[in-house]
Amino acid sequence: MIECNLISGVVVRYRRSINTLNKINNLAKITIEDCKIFDDLMTKYSRYLHSQPDEAPVPLPEPDELKQDFNTLANWLTEFNKRT
What we know:
Elements: H1 2-6, H2 32-46, H3 63-82
């Protein structure tokens, strides 16, 4: 969502070029609140992708927590797409 929606594909991992044609105006839609949503979720979920010590295992999120976070992202995308 960060690459495709938030920054409209201007920058994509593993792609050398920066593509701004008919896209750069979409960057003006980004707010501090948008950045906070993604910062918070990336911080929260990065712990599941990185090695953790055996003495302090990180429990997986509960289904209700996952559903809430997915709904947050779905609601964000709907609202973001309505911006001009």
